[in-house]
Design brief:
single chain; 208 residues; mainly beta; eleven-stranded mixed beta sheet; two-stranded antiparallel ribbon; 13 strands
Length: 208
């Protein structure tokens, strides 16, 4: 079976933060589709904790990934510049599978839900890093090595249903106030306080 037809599936929890004001205008809110980022340039970090799944041969349960990003709404195609960080506890086969899934190399769900896959992108590299995650539904946090730190706070009060394409518009989530987001991995370097965050679950597969 070739890589592009390799069967895989993973599920777990998702947490992100970026420099948009809450509620992030990129999301779908109350059924209304999102648009431009608050400031025209989006800088953020996304995290996934895989609870179960992988392939028939390789389990990814318990492993984590983080992605740090930047894009400009006014650049043609708004390409993503990003680093992908994969859990340093993964063995070589697990690391290769994680990278292939999150870079969209195995097809399926990422082709419809990962903007850095279905839009133009400029991958900056894949890093193996210690990744720490607390995906509590409020006041969660995550870190990838010394390069990425994110902490979020409480949910936005009285919010309409909010969904995000990356974990999936088919599943509920909630908008949070961001506390801290810091990324230091050249050429990505930024830090913000008091912006936005989002918590949800995810289920991705080669079947899309």
């Amino acid at each position: 079976m070739t890589d592009e037809h390799r069967r895989w599936a993973i599920g777990g929890t998702y947490l992100e933060s970026c420099n948009c004001d809450a509620i992030c205008p990129c999301r779908t809110v109350g059924g209304r589709k999102g648009g431009r980022s608050t400031h025209g340039i989006c800088m953020g970090a996304l995290s996934w904790e895989i609870e179960d799944g992988g392939t028939d041969e390789i389990s990814l349960g318990g492993l984590r990934t983080v992605l740090a990003l930047r894009y400009d709404d006014d650049e043609p195609g708004s390409p993503w510049d990003f680093y992908l960080y994969v859990d340093d506890r993964a063995d070589p086969e697990q690391r290769g599978l994680l990278s292939a899934i999150f870079l969209g190399e195995l097809g399926g769900t990422p082709q419809d839900q990962f903007p850095w896959v279905f839009k133009p992108s400029r991958p900056l590299g894949v890093r193996s890093a210690p990744i720490e995650i607390d995906h509590s539904e409020t006041r969660g946090w995550f870190r990838a090595g010394k390069e990425v730190t994110v902490r979020v706070g409480d949910p936005v009060v009285d919010q309409e249903p909010v969904t995000c394409v990356i974990p999936g518009h088919d599943r509920p989530g909630h908008e949070l106030y961001g506390k801290v987001i810091e990324v230091s991995d050249d050429p990505l370097g930024f830090g913000f306080e008091g912006k936005c965050g989002y918590w949800s679950t995810f289920s991705y597969s080669s079947e899309g």
